[in-house]
Design goal:
Length: 122
């Protein structure tokens, strides 16, 4: 199964917005077979096998980790160049976009931390 990392990242951000009290995560071989009626947060209709949320616990399927990480790290690394362009633009045309860029970068940074292999041992 091939998943688009940008869409996975967007969906992860949506899940965190829907349940801001997520306090535990797990990476599972698969979320297949988990009962969607148990979930307190709407499960992705785009990626029903990628994420599962139940009682503020988030499960991420292992096949989704690599594309999610690649998309997130790409966004995190591209932020300095985008924000320096915004700051150097004195006309103020991109003010709202700069804030949006930082919100996207924060969501991407959260995803990098969540799916980083070191996270489980920290």
């Amino acid at each position: 199964m091939s998943w688009d990392g940008d869409n996975l990242l967007h969906e992860l951000s949506r899940l965190y917005s829907a349940d801001a009290r997520i306090d535990e995560i797990a990476m599972l071989p698969s979320t297949d077979g988990l009962d969607g009626t148990m979930s307190t947060t709407p499960i992705s209709s785009v990626f029903p096998q990628a994420f599962f949320v139940f009682e503020h616990k988030l499960a991420i399927a292992l096949p989704a980790v690599k594309p999610l990480y690649k998309a997130a790290i790409h966004l995190v690394l591209s932020v300095p160049s985008r924000t320096s362009t915004t700051i150097s633009n004195s006309s103020g045309e991109r003010g709202g976009e700069a804030a949006e860029d930082l919100e996207v970068a924060a969501a991407a940074a959260r995803a990098v931390v969540l799916v980083n292999g070191e996270h489980a041992t920290a």
